[in-house]
Hints:
This protein is α/β, with parallel strands linked by helices and 586 residues long.
Amino acid sequence: MRSFLKYTLATITGIMLTTMIMVFLVIIIIAASSSEKPVEVKANTILYITLNDRIVERAVENPFDFIPTGMSRVREMGLNDILSNIEKAKKDNNINGIYLQLSAVNAGIASTEEIRNALIDFKESGKFVISYADIYTQKSYYLASAADSIFLNPKGNFLLNGLSSQIIFFKGALDKLGIEAQVIRHGEYKSAMEPFMTDKMSSENREQIMHWMGSIWQYMLKGIGEQRGIKPENLNRMADNLEIRTAESALENELVDGLRFKDELINSLKAITGTEEKKDLRVVTLRKYTKVPAKRDYKGIAKDKVAVIYAHGDVRLGNTGEGTIASERISKAIRQARRDSSVKAIVIRVNSGGGGVLASDIILRESELASQVKPLVASMGDVAASAAYYILAPADTILAQPNTITGSIGVFAVLPNLKSLMNKKLGLTVDVAKTNPMADIGSPFRPLTEDEKSILMSMVEDTYDNFVEVVSDGRKMSVEEVNHIGRGRVWSGENALDNGLIDAYGGLHDAINIAAGMAGIEKYRVLELPKLEDPIDQFIRKITENTRTRMLIRELGQFYPYFETIQELEGLYGMQARLPFKFDLH
């Protein structure tokens, strides 16, 4: 009887909870649907831009942002939407200008460059761009330098001290655990596994980091100098001596145009827009402005299309969702664009440090087939290196920003050896019976033999030779020329233009315009592929999949990326073509 009551009560409780959840979801869907109406932009409106949300190549519109989940959420904003909105605002007679709130810019340096270029282009309309911040980091100030006027909180901070690249090395920790990372690689600059092999940078790795990082720093100084009328060498001197320590010193050195509190800045904006003192400014945020229809230069609906294939994240096998370059998903998207007769040209937008060789080969096949029948233009984001460069090598034209990271033409294989951990730390032993001498090659419970290392090295060498040949064919360069700039070496976009890895500087919109021009079309629509995941499906998946990750992020905080790096060692399968590090320039 007691068991019967217990199960009956559990069943009733389950039904009630299910009903409540269903009702809650219906309310959510209705609320989300009601928020789809585009806002009305009236005359004399300012486009208000903040970039605190994490900026990705494109973001799934989340209608559930208003839900209080009790957990910190990382909101995302699509770079494609940001660029389109700035271009739209340039032609919108109801938009007077842009107000930038730039205490943070949560984007990569090349993405920041694309936004900066869009703002410079926006100013050609004669409309104003004004920037304000409580704190200017180097990245946010670089973006702000595109503005007509730059203002800083009188009590605010300003950072100008140069770039640095820090790498955490895990070799000591692995030694204590009894784990050996057995790495077979081609190229003295292919240092992706250095953190697991040694306790400091190799001379080759330090050389390449200083080269590309120095290139990016000099380009930033040049860009700031051109907009602010300050010599790059003077800016570099300020960074050397950390001269800009206060808001007053930033003003004295003409890095900003004024020191104002927020209310004073708002009054200035009211004066510029002719808004009465007692009335509020008319502003529209980027998110709301995204839903405002763009003004077209032609009537009707264009039949021709330019397909943009978004490929960002690690290159891996399978059909994983947005944020990974999954072989099945991306190759299918390229194939769809190739077979669609209304698609006249294809742009592949890549933002990735590389990944699995087999997965990139699957995607490469579709890139090659597409390039044979339609114009194929490649657009690089913050990074397009190793396997990510491999898949875009067949493109007719490759564009990048001067501060994009690319190259890293090299290959490695890694196999963990857990024998010491198992035997000495855990007291476990493993025995094996096998029909052939190498039946258990790659076993994590023993070290590789010299013969096995030799075989794996020959496989890595063959893969590297194939990589060089693909780049050679795609870039119309000799094998010797590709090998000279290969060997795993990383380059900035500025370096890449000099050595032939890219054709020109440019962003996503430049790539689309070039592709349309190559196809000979003037009126066209942009078709974005692969199709984004349904917001409701994404919401449910994130709730079920990301609970553990969010808990780890909450517990580990700033150390979570290092945990993630160690975890990746377990997930590496087969031969890899990856960047030698993760980086973020501030």
